[in-house]
């Protein structure tokens, strides 16, 4: 039906078929590059190249139809020559910017402006009779009548093409091995494309005055578009299954469009139109489904790799901490014996040095223990030795242990044992001691003036033990007058290896593990730990809630 409206000959119908396939392949490859290639200037120039080439495909075909009059034919030829200038110009800019973050071979700004100027002038000249002055008719067809403007046009296009190849080879010999492979694809595509264009279009036009191959120019430029697309996309995380699916979808849609164009009856036209719409919808759904599936699978693989790395990291920390702790314990023993003068009388200055060494060694042992605890927690190997504990007496003893550290910093440690009896709690005393020591130590360490207040009380709670529900619990609060916490710091305060900016300024030796370990240990007791702070400079209160046994 389409060909009844437009009188295409058999050769023109064949040319239209190849034109449609070529057009769809250019558009399809351009779409894939636009969607998947990493952002770059070269990518933009390539997409402009593809756009110009698809435009030139249509112009070359329409301008050679036998039923087009001479005036339209002449204007079509001029537009095609403008497209040729634009093509080689964009090709040069694409090659100049391809794979270049900071080009070693730079063009001076004046030369760039000169190149722009010549391109604009020649584009303007190409649309005048100075390039094509008329139309010449032969038995086998017609061709444009050349004028003097062909000479600067040929000099510009050939010269810029030679410069493009020179630039390619210069970049190739100065590129790394991975980039050289990409340049090879560019060279192969360009050599094939220019060889075909020169022999079948330009040589045929100039020597034999024959334009029979002009409608097929879109097919001739496909080698460059295909190889350049592959070079741009190579190693840029493009999944070949999506790439193949999208190209297959474009091909099927293209065939359906050709079938629509060749429809001879209204019924065939309606059937082909409906089929085309269904194929487009099916292609969209297929590509989306495959994209989601591949992304989901990639996420699963990434998660598996992360889990393996996490397990390897935990194993490494465990082994390293064990190997580190053993010699440190031995060193601590020797220092202790030296302090007790087991090896002889020592001067007072040496005793002070040994005291500093003992403190440093104890810090390293504490750090190794922290790493071991983190490793055990992350691998789910926390074992609890629960005992019925009078938490009031337990906390009183711990506060007395921490009081010298507070007095050394000039802080008031406020604690009054409640007069009323509190229910016992079932806890691992060593682990809860670690929790409360870490909380108190942080409060003392990050408070410069004022004091730290400790309280304990029984209250209603929503905590539940693993073997049954509980409606009451014991709440321990530690309030300081320190620097306080920002909302962001409150979110991260119990995260491993996370420390606030204020904490880093006050104590540079911390690693951000004590509160993370405290949270894990409290939760292992089916308890809860959290922090509250009105804001920076207004202090912080830590709460530890444990279920009643």
From TrEMBL:
<dbReference type="InterPro" id="IPR005467">
    <property type="entry name" value="His_kinase_dom"/>
</dbReference>
<keyword id="KW-0812">Transmembrane</keyword>
<feature type="domain" description="Histidine kinase">
    <location>
        <begin position="319"/>
        <end position="549"/>
    </location>
</feature>
<feature type="transmembrane region" description="Helical">
    <location>
        <begin position="80"/>
        <end position="99"/>
    </location>
</feature>
<feature type="transmembrane region" description="Helical">
    <location>
        <begin position="14"/>
        <end position="34"/>
    </location>
</feature>
<dbReference type="GO" id="GO:0030295">
    <property type="term" value="F:protein kinase activator activity"/>
</dbReference>
<feature type="transmembrane region" description="Helical">
    <location>
        <begin position="213"/>
        <end position="233"/>
    </location>
</feature>
<dbReference type="InterPro" id="IPR003594">
    <property type="entry name" value="HATPase_dom"/>
</dbReference>
<keyword id="KW-0472">Membrane</keyword>
<dbReference type="InterPro" id="IPR050351">
    <property type="entry name" value="BphY/WalK/GraS-like"/>
</dbReference>
<dbReference type="Pfam" id="PF00512">
    <property type="entry name" value="HisKA"/>
</dbReference>
<dbReference type="GO" id="GO:0000155">
    <property type="term" value="F:phosphorelay sensor kinase activity"/>
</dbReference>
<keyword id="KW-0902">Two-component regulatory system</keyword>
<feature type="transmembrane region" description="Helical">
    <location>
        <begin position="245"/>
        <end position="263"/>
    </location>
</feature>
<dbReference type="Pfam" id="PF02518">
    <property type="entry name" value="HATPase_c"/>
</dbReference>
<dbReference type="InterPro" id="IPR004358">
    <property type="entry name" value="Sig_transdc_His_kin-like_C"/>
</dbReference>
<keyword id="KW-0418">Kinase</keyword>
<keyword id="KW-0808">Transferase</keyword>
<keyword id="KW-0597">Phosphoprotein</keyword>
<dbReference type="GO" id="GO:0007234">
    <property type="term" value="P:osmosensory signaling via phosphorelay pathway"/>
</dbReference>
<feature type="transmembrane region" description="Helical">
    <location>
        <begin position="269"/>
        <end position="287"/>
    </location>
</feature>
<keyword id="KW-0547">Nucleotide-binding</keyword>
<dbReference type="GO" id="GO:0000156">
    <property type="term" value="F:phosphorelay response regulator activity"/>
</dbReference>
<feature type="transmembrane region" description="Helical">
    <location>
        <begin position="46"/>
        <end position="68"/>
    </location>
</feature>
<dbReference type="InterPro" id="IPR036097">
    <property type="entry name" value="HisK_dim/P_sf"/>
</dbReference>
<dbReference type="InterPro" id="IPR036890">
    <property type="entry name" value="HATPase_C_sf"/>
</dbReference>
<protein>
    <recommendedName>
        <fullName>histidine kinase</fullName>
        <ecNumber>2.7.13.3</ecNumber>
    </recommendedName>
</protein>
<dbReference type="InterPro" id="IPR003661">
    <property type="entry name" value="HisK_dim/P_dom"/>
</dbReference>
<keyword id="KW-1133">Transmembrane helix</keyword>
<feature type="transmembrane region" description="Helical">
    <location>
        <begin position="185"/>
        <end position="207"/>
    </location>
</feature>
<feature type="transmembrane region" description="Helical">
    <location>
        <begin position="111"/>
        <end position="131"/>
    </location>
</feature>
<dbReference type="GO" id="GO:0005524">
    <property type="term" value="F:ATP binding"/>
</dbReference>
<feature type="transmembrane region" description="Helical">
    <location>
        <begin position="151"/>
        <end position="173"/>
    </location>
</feature>
<keyword id="KW-0067">ATP-binding</keyword>
